[in-house]
Amino acid sequence: MAWEEKDNTLYHSYTFKNFSEAFAFMTRVALLAEKHDHHPTWKNTYNKLEIWLNTHDKGDIVTEKDRSLAANIDKLWTI
User: Fold this and answer.
1) 0.90 exceeded by the pTM?
2) Chain-centre distance for alpha carbon 7
3) pLDDT per residue as tens digits for the range 4-13
4) Domains in the chain, start-ordered, CATH in brackets?
C-alpha cells in the first residue's frame, strides 16, 4: 500500500486484527515520529488507524520531512 497525496497531506490507512495491535503500532510510530521531530495527525477506531502527514511550520504542505517519516513508518509496517 502506498501513501496517497491529497489535500496537502500524505495519507495512509491501516487495518489490524484488533485494538491491541493497532495501539502497539501507534506506539512504535509515536516513538519514530519523536525521533524525526515530526508528529502526525491520526485517528484510531478499534482496529483501524488513519495517518495524515504534512509539515505545519512550512504552511501545512507535504515536504521531504513527511516523505521521510512515511518511508520509515512503512519500514515499521513490514516488521
Assistant:
1) yes
2) 15
3) 999 999 999 9
4) 4-77 (3.30.1360.20)
